[in-house]
Each structure stands twice: as structure tokens, then as C-alpha cells.
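user: can you give me the structure for this one chain? C-alpha cells are fine.
assistant: on it. calling the predictor now.
[tool input]
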Amino acid sequence: MKKKSSVSIVTGSLIIALALAGCGSNNQANSTEQNKATEKPTDKATNKETDKETDKKVTIEYWQYEFPAKVELINELIKEFQTLYPNITVKQTNFPYDQYNQKVATLVPAGKGPDVINLYYGWLPKYVSSGYLQPLPEDHFPTAEIESNFYPLVSAAKINGSYYAIPTAVRTLALFYNKDLLSKANITELPTTWEQLVDVSKKLTETDAKGQFVTEGFAWEPGAQLHHWYRDGLLHQAGGQDLSDDRRKILWAETPAGLEAFQYLIDFAVKHKVGINGFYENDSNAFMTGHAAINIDGSFRLGSIKKDFPDLNYGVAPLPSYKTKSAPSSFWANAIPKNVEGDKLKAASEFLEFLTSKEVQEKWVEQIGELPAQKAVATQDKYVNDEKLGPFISQLDDSRAHFFIDETQEKTLFVDATNEVLLNKVPVEKAFQDLVAKTQKLYDDYWAAVDKK
């Protein structure tokens, strides 16, 4: 992110030799450098001159949750980074997703946690208010450069005027469709409007003699991506707003658009009966196994399908729109805990800058399926014209990332509201009003605590 210096380029033979050395002995890397004492190597990912002979040896720890594809890629990237920075050793530590926040809450305040941490952007307000993180160093990540180079959705990582995290990749949602099931139903045109999505979903739905689903026309799982679809997609498409500019007030009920969007989402299960919560375990499994014809899911799913269901004949299309276009977006970002300082802070900043480089973003697309966080990388022809990636990238300029106070609690409240209608027959309007009131209380409690500090 910071201004790069011009230096001599390391020869191809040196790069190959270092790559073969991988994450091996630092002594080997240093020996190679001594043989080229007259040259200063260049970090290819950042084009930044490095001073490997004067930098102190330092070890930093990187944390992320146990997502196999990401764990494997980070291991590869650590080897590459350590080739470029032989005096910095990076150790990766992983925890199961459901244990991640607990580990952070226990170890970070005690100074025993990571030096760079990967976290969901929706956790940031809670992490910042708890004192777990420090703002990104301005000398490596100037605010003006972040806001110029990255998609606007990263502003969700800006709290009290400072950026606390930065992503390598971002996600947005799109419409996944099973080509074989659409062909079987003689559907030749993809839905581009709310009304068309309902009509197509009905035609694709198949039930048995007992009325049980054989194929969902539309995978309906509020606890997966649909609660995001509501906040940053349906609500805005209907003409509504999510939050006030100061992020303190929920605006869903300020216009009829909020209830209209909520009703539309509920009707897929209650009125149209084209999908139901928990079918084939969850929405993504139902789609990937061929038991759901349409699913709204994230770009991150591309990697899972490629690896686990390579024969699935599917396509991706932009989300259907209504009065305007809007797509939900989200991201996992990297941050630096508050107690990291000195040489560790310098090394952590170098590693974090490496993780946001153009080359790393491109590797992330290829191996994970998530989208580049920087506009200049994402808008390359090879991505924009890609059959699967293109529909996601085309929506990034119209995407939004909800500012979560507590992502887990907000999702739970939304799912509870849908269950009130579906299971307890509570009128949609009452369930919606209760949802708004309970969500607003979360925000009131959060900001009251912040204001006291």
C-alpha cells in the first residue's frame, strides 16, 4: 500500500532457486543472499525493496479458522513470503469456526494471541470495542489509498475514522442455477426480476405424492445467505435503507419497502412453497447434490463446487432486481491485534501488505473463488469475462456490506423472525416489527457502551 521504491529485479534463476528452497532453512536463503551481496532483492508481490541483512529475525503468528482451501493457500503464501523475507518466520494456527471467537477473547487480551488475525468483517465492531485490535499502520495502509483502490464495501472496516482491517478478497451473492434442471423444465431464460424469480421457482419445484420436496425450486435457508440478501439486496431494491449514516438506527421500518422485502422473502416458503429450511441439510448441500434448482450463494462457493462436485452442471447469474439494483457483499479481512508492537508490528505489517498484493489476490481467485478486493485486479478481462466470476464482479459496484454490531446475534434474530411466521403462524407484519425492535436494541446497547468509553 505504501509508495514502492524502484530497485533491480532479481534474476529468474534466483527466484527459481528460492522457490525450490520454499520454507526451508533460513541459513540457505541467507547463504544465497551473501553470494549476491551487491544486489538488494525485491519483493515481487509488492515491488518493495527489502533489506534482509539488517532486519532482525522475528517470528509472527497468523490465525484463521479451519477452512481447508484457505489453510492450504496460506501455507503456500507463507513459503513465498519467507523466501522474500528470510528474517521473518510466519507460523499459521487454525481453530474450528465455532471456537474461533472464544480463543480470541481468551488469548488476545493476555498477549498470547496472533500477530495477524483473519476475521469476518461483521465481528469488527465487537473486536474493536473489546480492545482486541489496533488501527492499521498508516505508513503501510494510508486511508486515501484504501478508499481509492478498494471497492467501497470495505468501508465497513472503518470504525471511528480508522481502518482496522483490510481484505485480500471480497464476496458478493449471485444466483446459482442448475442447468440440467432448468433444461428439464424447459426454462430457457433466466429470471432478472423479483416476479420472474418466483415464476421460475414454481416451475422448477417438484414434490412427491405426500407433498414432500423432491427438488426445491428455490433453496430457502434464512440462516445461510438469505438474511444478507434481505439487508443489502431486497431492502434496497425495494427502495428502503438499512442504517442511518451514523450507523445507530435501523431504518427497515421507516418506509413500506422494509416490510415488502421481508414479505417477499417469507413468501418463497409460506405462500409459494418452493423451498424449506433444512432440506438436504442446508441450501448449499441441496444445490450441490442436485436437489435444489436455484440457490442464492456467494462467490466463495465456486471453490467448493470445483473441488467436491466437479461434475455439477451449473451456471451463475446476477441477482434479480426490482426498483433498483443492489447486491449483498461481505469479506474476511486481516487485522493486527492491539498488543503487537516493535519488530513484530513491522513484520506483521509487511505480511499483511503482502497478503493484499495483486499477485496474492489473483491466487486467491484461482484457488478459493473469492473476488479480488481491489478494483484494478477484479476488473481484468480474464475475470470480467469469466462465465462464473463475471456475474459476481458485475455487481460489485452496486454492492453493500451491512455494518454488523454482532453478526451472530443479528442473524439469529432474523432467523427467529422467519420461524415465528413459518412455525408459529405469527403474522408477517408483527414478526417484522419485533425483528426491527430487537435488532435496534442490539444497536442501542452497543452504542451506549461505546459512548461511555
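assistant: here you go. The CA atoms of residues 416 and 435 lie 8 Å apart. The radius of gyration is 24 Å.
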